[in-house]
Structure formats: C-alpha cells, structure tokens
Amino acid sequence: MSASAAVETETSATPPVDTDVVIETRNLGKIYRDFWGRKKVSALKALDIEVKKGEIFGLLGPNGSGKSTTIKLIQGLLFPTSGRAFVFGKDARDVTKNERIGYLPEESYLYKFLNAEETLDFYGRLFDMPAELRRERSDQLIKMVGLHQARRRQLREYSKGMTRRIGLAQALINEPDLLILDEPTTGMDPIGSREMKDLIIRLRDAGKTILLCSHQLADVQDVCDRVAILHQGELRELGRVDSLLKVRDVTEVHATGLSDASKQKIADLIRSEGGEVVSLDNPTTTMEELFLDIVQDNRPGGRPASP
After folding, report:
1. How many helices (H) and strands (E) would you count in the chain?
2. Where do the ABC transporter domain residues begin and end (predicted)?
C-alpha cells in the first residue's frame, strides 16, 4: 500500500458512536524520528483504551513509558504515527474539541506577576467569556480551591502547592467536560494532597470526566475508577482499581470484640478446613491517614501519644 493510500485509510476510520465514550484510542502509536527521518524511539505502541463519561481514569507508568506522549496525542499536540485518537467522537486533531477540555500540566506555566483573580480573568478572556461571567466564575473557583485569602497575592509569592491549586482553577475556568490532570498533587503536603483528591472526586461526582496521570500510586488508588499501566510504550494492564488490587487467593475477615480464645478457635477452624493462617492480627492504617488524623484532631488535649 502506498503512503497516500495508508493516510487515506487512516483518515477515513469511523469515529466512535458510543456517546458515553469520551476518549478512545485505536492502535495508537508514535515513533519519534531524528533529523534524517530515521527511527529514534518508539514512544507508544498500539494503544487501545476507552475513557467513559463520568469516570476518573488513571494513566500510570515510569518515566519514558509513553504517558506524556499519550496526553499530547489526545490533545492533538502531536500527530500519531499509526492509529487514531478520538475525543468526544471527534478526531483528536480537531481543535474545536478543546473548548470542552481543561488541562493541568505537570508544570503550570502561569504569569507570576498576576494574582489569582487576574490569572483567571486572563484565561477567561481566551475563551471569550463575558466580563460578568469571568468575575463570577473566578470567584467560585478561587473559593473552591481554597485560595480565598490569597486571591490578591501575586503568584510569585505562592508555594508549589498553592500554584497547583490556581492551576486547577485555571483548568476549570471554561467549565470543561473533560479534565486532563498531570501530577495534580505534586509539591503538596499531606493535607493539601488529601484536599486535592477530595476535590477531584467531587468534580467526578459533578459529572466531569477526568484523565489523571500521576507517579503517586496512593493518589491513583484513592481516586481512580480504572487505570491503564504503561511500560516502554506498551499497555501492560487495564482494569478497575478494586479488581486489580484484589488478592484472589487470600480471604480477609474483619471482626471486633473477639477474645484471644475466640481467635484461636477461628484459627483452628481454618486449619481444619485445609486453609493456612497467614495472619491473625489487628489491621493497620496508612501513614497518610495516621498523619491526617493527628493534625486534624481538634479535640481538647489532642490525640494521646502511642506507647
């Protein structure tokens, strides 16, 4: 097949008809070439994923796995070497789709001499929003991301966590249907990280579709409905988080008020049924939950120290 015939075949690929599919990639691939057109690196190979309306979809993988390339292909910032990407049923290269997308990059490129209000007003102008709507929307978003007290401070005075917050507000200025978030909690302390994750879940519950890319595995586990794991440009795993994390050959039982004698009876019963008692102990929490419990405990006297 000639090169022109291949391009024609690819261009005529049928767009998805399922209106619940917000993002779809079909055999999507990207090869980076050097100045002479020689193959330099195969960044993405035959990626097939679907992101459904109203879900938080996680894109995971080590550096160089193809996550950034995938995001750029979905946004239409790169052209694929093979396959197609569709967003809202349109080819990803169709710029009209961008009106319905909000994007928080890993590094927020914001004007440091502007304050929060001026920043959101600037981005609102890019979407041709009327002045009254810009003011109303900016005020809502500044309160939503917890920057009300710092709304008139220049961004150069913001911490990394505060910069991520205003970056998220900027991504939401146009009331997007699809949010693409790249490392949304980077630079945040545990409280800020928890608040950001809670906000992402609330946005999902409000009807937003979210594509989340993160190196923080705890973030993905806490908020994502489904995940795709990439490695060396290939899709290695795809599925629901709860299903992927479930250990199939281990049964877990939670109970309260058991005496040591009762625990021993349960252990004996398991062995009599041919099972093996791997652990029969008190459950543990996570360091994040422990930290948040301690610093957010407002009871008089605080939380008693552990022995």
Report:
1. 10, 10
2. 23-257
Torsion of CA 105, 166, 56, 186, to 10 degrees: 60
Residue 139 burial (CB < 10 Å; 0-12/13-18/19+)?
middle
List of residues 6+ apart from 290 with CB closer than 8 A: none
Residue in this structure with the two tokens 């193809």, named with its chain if needed? 66
Phi, psi of 269 (to 5 degrees): -65, -40
Assigned CATH for 18-245:
3.40.50.300
Q: Report which of 6, 92, 2, 7 is spatially closest to residue 49, judged by C-alpha positions.
A: 92
pLDDT bin (cut points 50, 70, 90) of residue 290 is low
Gap between the Cα atoms of 199 and 187, Å rounded: 16
Whole-number Å distance between alpha carbons of 233 and 229 = 10
pLDDT reading at 203 higher than 80: yes
Length of the chain: 307
Q: Per-residue pLDDT tens for 205-235?
A: 999 999 999 877 778 888 999 999 888 899 9
Type of residue found at 17? V
Strand partners, 226: 57, 240
Helical H segments across the chain, by residue range = 3-11, 67-75, 116-126, 131-144, 160-172, 190-205, 217-223, 241-245, 260-272, 287-295
CA 223 to chain centre: 8
Q: Are 188 and 146 in contact (CB under 8 A)?
A: no
Q: What is the percent of the chain where pLDDT is above 70? A: 85
Domain ranges of the chain: 18-245
Reading the block at residue 110, the tokens are 């914001």
All residues at 6 or more sequence positions from 182 whose CB lies less than 8 Å from its CB, including other chains:
68, 71, 103, 104, 105, 106, 213, 214
In the three-class reduction of DSSP (H, G, I as helix; E, B as strand; rest coil), residue 139 is classed as: helix
